[in-house]
Specification:
cell projection, alpha+beta, 26 strands, 4-stranded antiparallel beta sheet, Alpha-Beta Plaits, flagellum, 6 helices, Flag_FlgI, 370 residues, 6-stranded antiparallel beta barrel, 3 domains, structural molecule activity
Length: 370
């Protein structure tokens, strides 16, 4: 796939987003979390078998030998006192997330990660592993063939690794054995927790819900919480009430932010970012030092010794001049981008410029540097 095609698709996506910029409303269920509708993290410790000589070394990972011995003994194989050190097994940590309202017999995805010195889990099979919740109870059991996300190749003198072969996943690899006790129908009030707390957004959610039911059924209690009184809602159950409001269109109020990723040079500027009137120029110096030592030898058959004469060339060069660019007061996102592009600077130089504007007190937004 050519870079030109990728750029054209990306530009088409941006144009489509700009065309719908006027309709900035979002579904309510994409803005809030409903009280009680949440997942639960699960954790387990298990064994992966069937590796192609890339498993744990028993000398460096004695816990692998212990769990292997326990599994074999439960299967009726007595290995007490035996000296066996296979290289095709690995001890792993298994994690999963139990989704809300998961029922017994359902299946969930699991992630498997090596904890010993195994080099790869590619092609391995996870042996039956119980998954515990925070209360210590077993809620699911995982087993299956691992799909590793990396690859490794090695020889006698070199080794090449791509990705992370010591971690993988098993799609639908765990079966739910116990349900989380939660009586959703007995609720009298439901709290709607905003993912991004904001007073204006919470007030708009309250107004939208009350307009839907034509009465005062919702109340904003703080910037991050709206309480829905189910006793005032004429609905057969709490599920019916939430199904009625979860698709309401709400326009969120987003705080002005500038997010900068210094590692990749990515800059994201929010729509509500404003700056005061300021002039910006960007430049730099290039320092160049070259060492070209010269070897001096005595004449043939003459007395003397060979010496090295240092020769250094140092040069300081100014960067190409860039004129001042003025960003007027109340400048919007499009003006900021146009002004920075007018300077002809790279994204990493724009990061320094934004930091300097913020230090001057002219950037009216939250600057987040990652």
């Amino acid at each position: 796939m050519s870079c030109a095609f990728i750029r054209s698709v990306f530009l088409a996506f941006l144009l489509a987003m700009l065309a719908h910029a006027a309709d900035a409303s979002v579904r309510l269920k994409d803005l809030v979390e409903f009280d009680g509708v949440r997942g639960n993290d699960l954790l387990g410790y298990g064994l992966v078998v069937g590796l192609d000589g890339t498993g744990d070394g028993m000398r460096n990972a004695p816990f692998t030998e212990d769990i292997l011995s326990n599994i074999l003994e439960r299967l009726g194989v007595n290995v007490t006192g035996e000296q066996f050190r296979p290289r095709n097994v690995a001890a792993v940590i298994v994690t999963a997330s139990l989704p809300p309202f998961a029922r017994a017999g359902g299946r969930v995805d699991v992630t498997v990660s090596a904890i010993g010195d195994a080099r790869s889990l590619l092609g391995g099979t996870l042996v039956m592993t119980p998954l515990n919740g925070a209360d210590g109870a077993i809620y699911a059991v995982a087993q299956g063939t691992i799909i590793a996300g990396g690859a490794a190749a090695e020889g006698q003198g070199a080794r090449e690794v791509r990705g992370v072969p010591t971690s993988g996943s098993i799609p639908l690899g765990a079966r739910v054995e116990r349900e989380v006790d939660f009586d959703f129908t007995s609720l009298e009030r439901v709290r709607l927790a905003l993912r991004v707390p904001d007073l204006t957004t919470a007030l708009r959610i309250e107004t939208g819900i009350n307009r839907e039911f034509n009465r005062q059924v919702a109340m904003m209690t703080d910037p991050g919480t709206v309480v829905l009184d189910l006793r005032q809602v004429n609905a057969p159950s709490a599920a019916h009430a939430l199904a009625r409001i979860e698709n309401l269109r709400i326009t969120p109020q987003i705080r002005a932010r500038v997010v900068v990723d210094q590692r990749s040079g990515t800059i994201v500027i929010g729509e509500d970012v404003r700056i005061s009137r300021v002039a910006v120029a960007q430049g730099g110096l290039t320092l160049r030092v070259e060492e070209t030592p010269l070897v001096v030898q005595p004449n043939p058959f003459a007395e003397g010794e060979t010496i090295v004469v240092p020769r250094t060339q140092a040069q300081i060069q100014d960067a190409p001049p860039i004129a001042l660019a003025e960003l007027r007061e109340g400048t919007t996102l499009s003006n900021i981008v146009a002004g920075l592009n007018a300077l002809g600077v790279a994204p990493r130089d724009m990061i320094d410029i934004l930091n300097s504007i913020n230090a001057a007190g002219a950037l009216h937004a939250e600057l987040i540097v990652q």
